Amino acid sequence: MENPVLAEVTRGNTVESRHRGSAIVVDADGGVVFSAGDVERPVFPRSAVKAIQALPLLESGAADRYGLTEAEIALAVSSHSGEPLHAQTSLSMLRKAGRDAGCLECGAHWPMNEAAARALAIAGGEPSALNNNCSGKHAGFVCLSCGLDADPAGYVKPDHAVQQAVRGALEEVTGAAHTGERMGIDGCSIPSYAVPLKALALGFARLGSGRGLGPARARAAARIRAAAAAHPFMVAGTDRFDTRLMGLLGARAFTKTGAEGVYCAALPELGLGLALKCDDGAGRAAEVALAALLGRFLPMDEPTQAAFAPLREAVLKNWNGIEVGRVRAPAAN
């Protein structure tokens, strides 16, 4: 099966590039509302499932034990830009558990935000693990480990109590087995499991509605969604797609990007979960493809539609600031 085109790139009035992929929308009972392409092929969700990975942090009581704020819970599900507030908040989470940045096992990289990276370099600084886009998730893992009275050392390993709890949450919420033969290592060193795209959409339908989850897990999911809606900057950063989307839509949508062209979303008021994967791993394509699906299923008033339009069709400009093309979903989508 050749997957359909999810996004196309124009130059002038001509389509210059096309991005193929698969996408699916399901309800919390697994009923398929929309499907395109091969949605049964296992894919690595990467960072798209951080909200599910954070469920044990809340369910265990660790988040309350250490007094994590809404902003800190939002950071725990983020792929942030490494801006100063992101790094400061990660450190705050660690200190509440009596730890420091030396506990983080995600590795260090320069802030993804260019202004933050330049400022750090000009000041003569070096990037630390706090700047890693996954530092909030990892700070949450350290808090969970401490809350379980387990040594945080090695918390990225598959057999650590933290990753066992995370794997259990992923399996229950998505309904898919997370097995060793489909395990890889993510960019931040934790296990990542390849599962069908349909399972990811089901997981997000459950994450958004609470249906199919136990009471404690449903409450944890609701707290995570509320935290992200209240603090969308923490989930991504300045001018990032998730921050812009949730800043506009608020609690009506929880969205989360993953690496290699994966995107997932929950629409709580509709009880729907969305998941897509661009075959070539293009993030620019995944963004407009997700926006197209949101626009298709989520009712919006005219002011919201007007504000949403730039997210559905990204403008491309050259170095002189001249518009040269667009990234958009094909008209048929």
From TrEMBL:
Which branch of life, at top level?
Bacteria
What protein name is recorded for this chain? Asparaginase
> Which InterPro entries does the annotation name?
Asparaginase_II
